[in-house]
Amino acid sequence: MTTVKVKKASDGYGVTLKSSNTEDFNFAIGTLKSFIHPSARSYDPDARQWHVDAAAEVEFERWLTNMRTVIAATIEWSKEADSQSSTNKRASNGQQQWPPPRRRKQPTREELCARLFLLPDASDELIKAAYKCLAMKFHPDKQSGDEEKMKRINDAYQRLLAA
Fold this sequence. Notes:
Layout: E1 2-9, E2 12-19, H1 22-35, E3 41-44, E4 49-53, H2 57-70, E5 74-79, H3 81-92, H4 109-115, H5 124-138, H6 147-162
Parallel strand pairs: 1-5
Antiparallel strand pairs: 1-2, 2-4, 3-4
Helix pairs in contact: 1-2, 4-6, 5-6
């Protein structure tokens, strides 16, 4: 199992990788290097941590999506202590948070297909078959059911068929 710990800082992201599988660990580092330009990343051997600049946010999000879908990595987020305490102070004073929180972008077809364990070029018939199979496995009424997974599967299915 691979875990990616991400610490959001004002100048970018701190990334720590942990894996019990050497192949997954090497894959994660290799893809980090291929997704993010060398000028936007650096490695601190003392802390065993990668730093990704805030300017490479889009590439970093693509890399995280790749980690989730390809090697089923667990992503753990944590915020910088100073920014968190200042946000809490502003919220308790009734002031509006600045900068305003970013709106979540709509998931891409690739991300939606990954939820159904399909390739992005899957046909409608294949999407329906995958949905039925996953619905039978994760339906909340089943003993092995998972309501949260079922919501994500339903959302992906509806969005893919509407597109």
